Amino acid sequence: MTEGDILYNGHSILEMDPAERATAGIFLAFQYPMEIPGVPTLEFLKVAINAQRKARGEAELKIPDLLKKVKQAAGELSMDMAMLKRPLNVGFSAARRSAPRSCR
């Protein structure tokens, strides 16, 4: 940036490193996310949530508590829990699944 500021919750984020921005709740998402075979989505969520909690000085969530929160969120989003058992982002993009073979 050459001038101005970016405020998030009333605080400038310009001098924050990416880890600090993530801890503050600012994330980058991709329309076509990279598939990561071998990493279960639920395990990824557990690590991400507990990293956030640790950065805020909170205790890590144990598996039973994490599952309860994840099931609640999945229900609110009408999301099939089976999605959380598959590898991270594998088969996630509808555009990739429906693309003609010649485009893959």
Structural notes for this entry:
This protein is of the alpha+beta class and 104 residues long. The chain folds into two domains: 1-30, no CATH class; 33-92, no CATH class. The chain is 39% helix and 11% strand. It has helices spanning 18-24, 41-55, 63-76, 94-98; strands spanning 7-8, 11-12, 36-40, 87-88. The strands form two sheets. A two-stranded antiparallel sheet has the order 1-2. A two-stranded antiparallel ribbon has the order 3-4. β1 (7-8) and β2 (11-12) form a beta hairpin. Mean pLDDT is 83; it is low at 95-104.
Condensed summary:
With 104 residues, this protein is α+β, with helices and mostly antiparallel strands. 39% of the residues lie in helices and 11% in strands.
Keywords:
single chain, about 100 residues, alpha+beta, 2 domains, two-stranded antiparallel ribbon, about 10% strand, globular, disordered C terminus
Main β sheet profile: 2 strands, antiparallel
Instruction: State the helicity in percent bands.
Output: 25-40%
Overall radius of gyration: 17 Å
Look at the helices and sheets and give the structural class.
alpha+beta
Mean pLDDT across the residues is: 83
Strand content: 5-15%
Q: What is the CA–CA distance across the termini?
A: 37 Å
Adjacency order of strands in the biggest sheet: 1-2
- How many distinct beta strands? 4
Question: What's the tally of helices?
Answer: 4
What is the H/E order?
Answer: EEHEHHEH
Question: What characteristic shape results from the CA principal axes?
Answer: globular
Taken together, the total number of domains comes to 2
Query: Which residues sit in consecutive blocks of at least 5 with pLDDT less than 50?
Result: 95-104
